[in-house]
Amino acid sequence: MALIQIKGKLEIKGIKKVIFILDTSESAYSYWNEIASLTSQLIALLPKDMEGELYFLGNSNPIEISQFDKLTSQFFEENLNRISLITPIFEKLSQKEDIFNILIIGSGKIFDLEDWADSHLLKQTLLISVKDSLQGELSLADEISYPTAQQIYTYLYDPIIEVEISGKGFMPLKWSNGGYSLNIIEGKAYLTASKLDNYFINLEYLITSDFSPQAKLTYASGQKIIKPIQNLEIVEMKEEDLNLISLTSEEEEIFKKAIFKKPFLCIHCKKTHEWNTLYCLNTSSILGEPIYPSLNNYKISGFVLFYQKDEKVYFQDYPFNLLKIDENTVAFREGRRAVLYKYSEKEDMWIATSHTLDPYSKIKEGVYAVVF
Description:
Mean pLDDT: 92
Helix content: 10-25%
Largest sheet: 6 strands, mixed
């Protein structure tokens, strides 16, 4: 399959709300102190940016969690011996668009739990039994018995510690989050990030036409989840929207000779250099000075794209370490050179060639790439 160029994004929404559902039924009556104590401890552990709602089994009216400690006895009396039913609450929660975890704390079987088997609500529910199981002999949801508040908190707050994006033929060309880095390992390209506060990323990439890239999310608990990248329509940036900087007239003369592989007169040393010379070594700088002084003025290094429009020449600082050359070739920058990689459809690999990007390689009509 041929490679296609796609734009996409990865958006990871964290859990910002916890739903507490407490059991005051006959089977839980004797264990109310344990239920109330555990709930109070959990509320105290919640991060400041995490919201909470609190319900009682069989009652779809929420109460403010901030009032729980003050009015524990009152809430208990008002909901005493309510039947263990989850449906009134789940029907209400199913109308919410928030992302939340659900904690049900109690003792004894919830009679209508099976009615919600395989629902998204039950999949984000943790059953917490202080004595008898809340689901009996069934296995409908995760359940833990006699836990500490800290053990439950670990379940609630399990941050992502690493994201790895890959796919068949995948090669990222541009990405918005500087916390991600590109690695090419055994012919496979991976865009990875770790220990970030925000893993959101917009990216533009190559991929085989019958495949979509995926992100592997690794959590602190060791849990791993695969999440697809959301494909977006590519919007080509117009030249007038690019951040283009004009070359000086002297620099334009150098460029116009260099693209035809002709020697040019150096601005720094006033001597003639070969067309592919990028740094003048006849200066006080040990590493040499770029033959285009404007690059130094703007502290530009790495890939530089030159745009020839009519008689004028402009340049653009290209902020990524990878540049698309053609449909199956990319240049991966390593210091002051860029190694060419070609995609092998047969082997599904990006293979490093023995070639590097030549100065003034023509990317498309009127656009040339150089590595400084």
